[in-house]
Amino acid sequence: PMRGPSMNPALADMNELFGGARISYIFNDIFAASLMSVAPFDGLSDQEIRTTICNANGTRPSLFVPEISFDILARRQISRLEQPGLQCVDLVYEELQRIASQCEPGELTRFPNLRERLTEVVSGQLKRSVGPTQTMVSNLVKVELAYINTSHPDFVGGSRAVAQLMRKLEKEKEEARAKARNLDAMGATPLSSSSLNSYMGVEKENTVNGSRAPPLVDSEGSGGILNFMFGRGKTPTKPAKTIFRTSTGNGQGPPSIVQLPQVPATMRQTDVPPTDREKIEMEIIKILIESYFNIVRKNFIDMVPKTIMYFLVNHVSDAMQNELVAELYRDVELPTLMKEADDVAQRRQICVEMKTLLTKALEIVDEVREFNTFA
Q1: 78: how many CB neighbours lie within 10 A of its CB?
Q2: CA end-to-end span of the chain, whole Å?
Q3: pTM, two decimal places
Q4: For residue range 223-251, what is the model confidence (pLDDT) as tens digits?
Q5: Which of 62, 76, 99, 287 lies 20 to 30 Å from 336 when distance is taken between CA atoms?
Q6: Bridge partner residues of 211 (DSSP)
Q7: Residues 110/343, Cβ–Cβ less than 8 Å
Q8: Cβ atoms of residues 102 and 11 within 8 Å
Q9: Please, is 359 exposed, middle or buried when counting C-beta atoms within 10 Å of its C-beta (0-12, 13-18, 19+)?
């Protein structure tokens, strides 16, 4: 059944898959299709990416995107592939048990002890092979986590990630300009550079201490990703924290004591909107994570079926005959294993007695026929 229904035409069914075809269906239509539907950023929010980058920077913001943040986030997403791989092992194990039950010959019903012992040996061999297979699938993930190969030829890399982001920003600018021209053609007020930034959603509407957040593209055309990556471009002013002041006397005059607010036990950046630099860094990290996750997922989809076939399917198929001979062909157990079921022996005795009666009846009929012939 592992090679197809041609091995046993009596079990072939035209309406459903059979034998090894079911295992192939598990590999391609269940395991691979499920992993391809997993997005690189499932369970990972922009806020978590932003916080990881901030934690990687430490006390001083780095000039470039910190590589340790990509390493941490990539490992977190890669580790999510282990559970589907282990589930695939369980599905194939259950399918092998189903195939083993289908291969059972009908003659075994005569020998219940042999049938029970045979099922026990087959199940034991399958269970012993599942453990090493699961360990090897887990090792596939651990191997990927042990070394993040940023030199992989299919990895987008830092420079190409920046270039890809630049193209994305340019495309957004072109789309915004096209919309502005369409509005102008319809009789709307032409958009200036400042209104264009507002139209693109880059310039913030709120002002802090009387100053507005700088646009991504200024009227002089000096905006761009390098301004924010190297700190040339200005970043939006963060909202000022509340400072408590106490004054002496009747409350007139300058305050004499300035008290800072209490430091919260848990610090989060949700209260402060991300700056343009942080947005650029998050986009670059997302491009890198998506590229590397796709590489690892492709390798995992290819290696898991191969691992299961070698450590589970082929190993059980090759070792099963020797295991059955070693466990069943024993002189001490042969009488017990070959003992027929009670109902089978009873039916055989009834058949023997019936055969004896029919033989005697046939002899009587022959004697009567010969007597009539002579008479």
Answers
A1: 21
A2: 67
A3: 0.67
A4: 444 454 545 444 444 555 555 555 555 55
A5: 99
A6: 208
A7: no
A8: yes
A9: exposed
